[in-house]
Amino acid sequence: MLSASVVLAIREIRRHLLRSLLTVLGIIIGVAAVIVIVTVGRGATVKIVKQVSELGANLLIVEPGRLRMGGTENPPPFHIQDVEAVRSQLRGVRAVAPQVRTAVVAVRSGINRRVSVDGVTDEYLIAQSCTLASGRRFTPEEEELGKTVCLIGAEIRRSFFRDEDPLGKPIKLEDLVCEVVGVLTARGQSGFGDDRDSTIVLPLKAVQRRLSGNREVQTILIAVDPTYLTADLKSSLTSLLRERRRLATGTPDNFSITDTKQIIDAVSGVSKAMTALLGAVAAVSLLVGGIGIMNVMLVSVTERTREIGIRMAIGAVPRDVLLQFLVEAMILACLGSVAGITFALICNLLLASILTIPFLFDPWINLASFLFSLFLGIGFGYFPARRAATLNPIEALRHE
């Protein structure tokens, strides 16, 4: 009986092909909207989390001054002694990297452009999870003496050296001539929007002596040992820095500590909440699609009243009529769902390419959308089917 109902339903759908297509349009749009929003939202979350993670997993970024408004206007800077104190007095520290950043005009072979210059120590590569595409790291002697050697980002290499091997070649930073000893692997933009491939990295003392002209440290990057709790280390770090900066009890901190793990958790939480909200809004269109199916099925029952009467006259029972119309509603919902999933996959591919986010295929959201559409087909198709099944055969036969 079920197979006969399926055959009859398909025959009826084919007989009114355009009307069937318009009926399932709401389901197609609803399913596609839910899948696209959820999938693109997850892809965007993965991209943002990846960018923040590339700053360094379990990384604490310490800067003078406070992040909130009303903080100290001229906070005392950090010095290398603060870095040494963190390294020697705190447990759970994997790497401590002082950093000084400035911007200068780099010149080579007639090409000149403004670039970012970071003055760092060797532990910067550990804290930032940097690797070398070619060349070598700074030697202890180069760091100690502040030699004018540098590591360059991938974009600097493309802009200033093109097809030439940059190792051992000079590049001029203002009046300072540096020898390129290494090329960093491409890292793209950071979570804060900085192009890290357009950066030139020098020993800390070289930048302090030759470019910034002071011994201050702008930022301290602290990579946390994965076996330690970041919150515990952050608490110990706060106490140590307050002590070194002679802050009395009750006096607010004149420095800020940014935890990249907290940033990742916050960004991920907000993104998931927004995705769930937009997905719920898109799911409303699915309900509209279900109402469309019910509306068309009611029209179909009215048009086929005489046919229903004939079926009942030759032996069909109300249950057979109920099943026939219910199956027709379910098939319409399933066709709309499959078309919506296909349309969503195409949209996801295009959006992933345009927005440069990873393409994610989640079989569970596709399956959930399909089952939800099927449930809508049953729910909204039951009333018309019930109406058809309860028709009086004699009155149905008299229907014109």
Large-scale geometry: elongated
Question: How can the largest sheet be summarized?
Answer: 6 strands, mixed, barrel
Specify Rg, calculated over alpha carbons: 33 Å
Oligomer: single chain
The number of distinct β-strands equals 10
- What is the helix/strand order? HHEHEEHEHEHEEEHEHEHHHHH
The helix count comes to 13
User: In terms of structural class, how would the helical and strand content be classed?
Assistant: alpha+beta
Tell me, rounded to a whole number, the average pLDDT. Answer: 85
Calculate the terminal CA-CA distance, rounded to whole Å: 28 Å
Which sequence of strands runs across the widest sheet?
2-3-8-5-7-6
- The proportion of strand residues reads 15-25%
Describe this structure in words.
There is one protein chain. By secondary structure, the chain is α+β, with helices and mostly antiparallel strands. A 6-stranded mixed beta barrel has the order 2-3-8-5-7-6. It has helices at residues 2-15, 17-53, 80-89, 123-127, 140-145, 154-160, 204-212, 230-244, 260-303, 305-313, 318-354, 363-389, 393-398, and strands at 59-64, 93-108, 111-120, 132-135, 149-152, 170-173, 176-184, 199-203, 219-224, 255-259. A hairpin with a 2-residue loop joins strand 2 (93-108) and strand 3 (111-120). The longest helix has 44 residues, at 260-303.
